[in-house]
Amino acid sequence: MAAKHKNVSFPNWHPNFTIQATLPDVKVVRTGFLVNFVALTFPVLLIGLILVDWMDAQGLQQQIETRKQLLEGAIVENKKNVEKSKEFDIAAAKLNDVEGFLSGNLDELEVIVAIAESRPKAIALNNISYSEMQKKVGKKMVLAPRITLRGVLKGTSADEVSMLDEYKATLKNLPVFAGILDDVTLPEPTQDIDKDLSRFSITIDLKAADE
Amino acid sequence: MNSEQIIAKLKQYPVAAVGLVLTLVLAVVYYLRMPVLPELRDTFDNYEKQVEQINQNKKNSVDLDAHLKQANEIVSNIEKRLIDPDASIANSGYFLRLREESAINFGSGTVPKPSYFDVDDKKNKNDARATKVYAQMEYKLKLEGELAKVLDFIYRLKTGHHLFVVDSISISPEGQITDGDGNNNEENLAGATISVRVLAKSESGEKKT
Fold this sequence. Notes:
By secondary structure, chain A is an alpha+beta fold. Chain A has four helices and five strands, in the order αααββαβββ.
């Protein structure tokens, strides 16, 4: 009986802790589950990304098609519009050219007539000249009109010469210069005692049209 | 870890192995598709810009036909009024006709030869009245006659068929006036020197447009 018992081998009743692989998996979350979860998470994420990407691409493709159709429908009309616009630009350049050429804020004849009519009897005008002085305003060249009067005044006394100051004031207040007058200068007149005359020159500077 | 162990692990976790293979395949697919979306966005932006441009052009073209017609009519009218630099006899005739209408005389007896400034002329470039499309011709005239008639000539010149501007006028009475009574008939006689410019046809300007 004892020999019979000696021939029967029993496995160890407790695990051998030195062989890790044979130990049972007793974790709350099994390693197999974790490995599978992680291994499947990546493909699922990638599938999601590719799907979103594909859907975006489809949406864009659709919008591109819509715009292509819009362009195909409008391209002929647009070409005509562009051609007309170019034609208009050419015409506008010509009109601007003429407008610039004719620009000015003054009617020279009206000014000359107004000056001639404002002349007091004691004053004789020998010359009225009108010219346009070029000057730079910002980066642009503009024309500022200048009128110069040369004349003689009867008399040389202080009282008589003071009439020139009155004439200067009259010129300043001429309605034709309203809003465009820049400056009126009257240098000291030269006296011709023998002929009892005072010779003078008055310069009227006006503002340029763009000032 | 050797290959046997790796194979053992793969056998141990077959689902994870499939997941790994799938991840690799999908990563390659994702990598290959990466440039597709930006390319499509660029294409879309390009088309979008074209559509916006066309819409803007459409808005800008409201009444364009009418405006173009009007502008062309004005330009046509202007071009009919340009002086022809080559038609010197006709140009002199124009001045002589105005002279007759105003009943004045030219100081020199005839119309002086004009100066011609084309659009590319350097002398014309710094001028405030420089033109880019049309050329200009400058005339300096001496006028003699009654003051009112001299002024009438200048007025006719400014408002006549051709497009003139006055650069300068210098008017003096004929003879020396020593008193200011104004009773002398000679006082009304005046001599004037005027410098005028007129818009002219330009060969280089025509070519430019």
